[in-house]
Every structure is written in C-alpha cells, then in structure tokens.
Amino acid sequence: MNNQQDRHIPRLDAPVVLVHGVSGFDRVFKLNRPGKEFFPGVRPHLEAAGNRVLMPRVSATASIATRAAELMAFVRREVGTSAVHVIGHSMGGLDARYAVRHLGLDSQVLSVTTIGCPHRGSTFADWGVRTFGRVTHPLFRALGVADEAFYDLTTESCERFNERTPNVPGVRYFSVAGVIERPWVAHGWKLPSRIVRNAEGPNDGVVSVASATWGEATAIWRGDHLNLVNWPNKRMRKAGEWPDRAGEYAALLGQLKQAGF
Question: Is 214 within 8 Å of 117 (Cβ atoms)?
Fold first, then answer.
C-alpha cells in the first residue's frame, strides 16, 4: 500500500483489539508460518497507517465469562493498563462487554465496537440447543470440550446477560449489523437465515439486525456472518458485488476519530 492510500486510513493513538467470535481463532499457521487470519486483510490494512492491531485467541466454545477473562489477560499482557479500542465479532462483542462491565477493563477500554454481535441472542441458537442439545452436551462433556458458548447465545440467556451487563458510562459503544439476501445466501446459511428471519427479521445468516443493534450508532453491511470479518462471499465476488471489508474497518476507525479519539 502506498503513502497516498495510507493517508485515507485513520490512525488512532490507542491500539485496536480484534476479538473473534465462537469457534474462531486469531490466525492459522501452516508449517510454522502464519496463514489465514480470522479477520483476513484487516490487520495489515489498518497497520499501514500506523495503527497497532492486536488479535487475541480466546477459547472457541467456552462461556462468555471464561472468554472475557482470557481477553482481559491478553490485553493486560500486551499493553499493561494502557488504553485500547475493542472491535468484537459475534460473541467477541459480548466478551468485551462482560470484561468492561464485570472485570474492570473499563479502566482502559475507550470504545467497544461490535460486529454482527447477538446482543439479544439468536433464535438459531435457540433452535440448535433445542434440537441437538441433548446429544451434543454429553458428547462435548465426554470429550472434555466446553460448550457453554452455544447456551450463552440463546435469546433467554442474552436477556439475562443484558440485565446484568449494562453499558458502562464513559465507554463509547458502536455496532455493525449484517444483512444477507437472495441471491447471495450460500447453501450453508439458508436454514439458519430462514429460522432467524421468520422470528426476528433481516439478518446475516445467524444474527438479526435487531439483535446486532447496540450503542450510539449501528452501520448496516451487506453480507453473511463471516463476510462481516472479510471472508469473501463467493457468489457476490463472482458477480462483481463483493466489497473488501478492510476499507469498512478503516471507516470504523474514522468513526472513532470523529468521536474524539
């Protein structure tokens, strides 16, 4: 990226922490070399303007409380008690809210921006727990694998979460919601998208716009749940309709810059 392009990417004084959602990762290594990142292309795009971008790896399917504690430990290890901005995808947004409200991370988090985050839960999580929970729960337990994440994302659980976890005064909250519509819905998203649409309306395949809306302002991006972190939609790309999301993440930093950071 050349210097002309760099100037269009806002630079924040505080580091940006990108938090992955359920079953996510920070980056995949191949033959001990860094491979694909969970937010592909986003980190180098923001770093080109001098931003420091950090990507923690938290437990894939553990509870919000467990993941939030891991997030806090990561932040303290990487920056001590210095200020940060957090951008959390999906469950990562709930992890950030929990750490800020309950673990004392509000002392250094300037803003929380959530991407496709099920603040009010997902009816697809309700359906999944109701349909498969009796089988998967004992299986996960037998394998020694946590499965609390799937239960924490139900609408009932998130209702209780919101009662216990209101926003913290002094921390700025923003959000992004996704909408995926025909003909861009891939086969894997058709069932969950229909379940959520029938109960909650427009959605990104698993999280509705209503559930993802949070904070001072909510941007609407076109794409499915993984497209929101810059995993391309093959159908949209083939039709020339796919937008590289890295620029939209730069716009999120621009929003924070306009907010005074």
Answer: yes
For the segment 90-115, what is each residue's pLDDT rounded down to a tens digit? 999 999 999 999 999 999 999 999 99
Q: Decide the pairing of beta strands 218-222 and 16-19.
A: unpaired
Q: Where are the domains of the chain?
A: 3-258
pLDDT value at residue 33: 46
Residue 184, both tokens: 């861009």
Residue 163 — left, alpha, or beta (φ > 0 → left; ψ -120 to 50 → alpha)? alpha
Query: How long is the chain?
Result: 261
**pTM for the full model?**
0.91
What CA–CA distance (Å, rounded) separates 225 from 251?
19
Residue 124 near residue 196 (C-beta atoms within 8 A): yes
Q: What are the backbone angles phi and psi of residue 208, rounded to the nearest 5°?
A: -80, 160
Distance CA 161, CA 147 (A): 17
List of long-range contacts for 240-243, beta carbons under 8 Å, 24+ apart? 241/184
Question: 198 is written with which tokens?
Answer: 């029938």
- Do 44 and 112 form a contact (C-beta atoms < 8 A)? no
Contact 100, 109 (CB under 8 A): yes
Domain 3-258 has CATH 3.40.50.300: no
